[in-house]
Amino acid sequence: SETIMRRNSAIRSFTESVDSDFPPAPELPPSLNIDLHYPEENVKKEVKHRRQLLRLILY
């Protein structure tokens, strides 16, 4: 449990540092927009990091 919490904290820190280092990403086309395919709020939170990484890879 503590390991998972530390891992999640590290992921959040990494994401925040990436967000601060790069300008806002352009909008994804609908075919790649995860939020359109998984609109539930709890799922959106879990895929947020994947979406950000996808934007980094694509742009």
UniProtKB/TrEMBL annotation:
Protein name: Uncharacterized protein
Taxonomic placement: Eukaryota, Metazoa, Ecdysozoa, Nematoda, Chromadorea
